[in-house]
């Protein structure tokens, strides 16, 4: 699942959710501007590998990875519908940090929840998105206290909330 030479490097795992979230009228999919800035922020905290889980690798390459200064440290892991369990298993074994870019994604939540380090799970502030699910969920019930909420200031800086 990972190259032997990369086993000891710090690994930040990023979940990208698009697909039905872009058209269902309820959920907010991954926003590329927030995602690029948040990956940059986490990379400055812990340089190493950035592993991006997505079922849309072309989008990830063109809209996210091509805008990063450390492309050689990025791996895109394609998530086919019938193999999603591999991402969960990978998270348990390898993810030192997790970024959930679509805050109402239950699959992103499980990647974070099953990751090996619960104190390094970051998620986007749902109240900064157009996600109508934010009116139905109690944030304290959905996101564990050890997880860290991230927001984006008006000038594009990532801030801890």
From TrEMBL:
It comes from the Eukaryota. One of its GO terms (molecular function) is galactoside 2-alpha-L-fucosyltransferase activity. GO terms for biological process: carbohydrate metabolic process. Keywords: Glycosyltransferase, Transferase. GO terms for cellular component: membrane. Transmembrane segments: none annotated. Pfam families: Glyco_transf_11 (PF01531). Signal peptide: none annotated. InterPro entries: Alpha-1-2_FucT, Glyco_trans_11. PANTHER family: GALACTOSIDE 2-ALPHA-L-FUCOSYLTRANSFERASE-RELATED, UNCHARACTERIZED GLYCOSOL TRANSFERASE-RELATED. This is L-Fucosyltransferase.
